[in-house]
Amino acid sequence: xxxxxxxxxxxxxxxxxxxxxxxxxxxxxxxxxxxxxxxxxxxxxxxxxxxxxxxxxxxxxxxxxxxxxxxxxxxxxxxxxxxxxxxxxxxxxxxxxxxxxxxxxxxxxxxxxxxxxxxxxxxxxxxxxxxxxxxxxxxxxxxxxxxxxxxxxxxxxxxxxxxxxxxxxxxxxxxxxxxxxxxxxxxxxxxxxxxxxxxxxxxxxxxxxxxxxxxxxxxxxxxxxxxxxxxxxxxxxxxxxxxxxxxxxxxxxxxxxxxxxxxxxxxxxxxxxxxxxxxxxxxxxxxxxxxxxxxxxxxxxxxxxxxxxxxxxxxxxxxxxxxxxxxxxxxxxxxxxxxxxxxxx
Length: 345
Description:
This protein is of the alpha/beta class. It has 13 helices and twelve strands. It folds into two domains: 2-159, Rossmann fold (3-Layer(aba) Sandwich), CATH 3.40.50; 163-341, Dehydroquinate synthase-like, alpha domain (Up-down Bundle).
């Protein structure tokens, strides 16, 4: 097990990687706790949940909306959760987003923690305190920065994930390697079999490397005013593809990374051999999907992106493998590059 600590203004958030999720009972208070989960996770693990009220939502991105937050808040009132209460989210990225957001606004803020059950959540979504819900087709436009007291990342839980959800999460692990850790990139390249078999010891090591990088970034820039923007590599195109094509997040981001890598090459940030390594790895794990968005739709979707500033957007380029750079460029330039390169796959 590895413990990674993120410090924020005198408070801390502990990320526990490789520990058994059932140890959560030893980390939470004895009363005043409510559990938020989805129906899939409850079916798989509900019998071993700590003995507290369980609030269940439907699985998937469609639950990330204000109506769900309102429904859950009403259940918390009925359950008797007060300002000393504690929310425990047990689930993937959607559950963690909803739990963190709900905790940050319920009675003006109560404590929370997560048991992260998906690879996407263990390496990305549950780490760093960004919580939010969608508004129509605009992703995460309503939300908050609020840190969980702890996050348990138990790779053994990944054994129960459907294959497409598991590999969707792998795309975010690859993203972290591209922007922050060349050694991690090489380990993913050289461990196809172990990753495909979901080896818990290997995943603990890979997750630890990814989480250490993300926590270093988040500790320096909690509210994404500078350095933290690098974590959005592949997401400008990826979010648009995700919304238009309804792909799983990781597959959309993989296609976004393919485009961002090509864009990085065109600007001289990335060499052709480095580009080939990135595309080769994405293809090895069969992460790329065809998309072909209409130019007008792409522009409209990018104009809703949180990284936009007027008619410009903060775009993340790969500066070799293991480093990234952010440039503020025109949205029209992003759209034009897509128009000329969307058939690259």
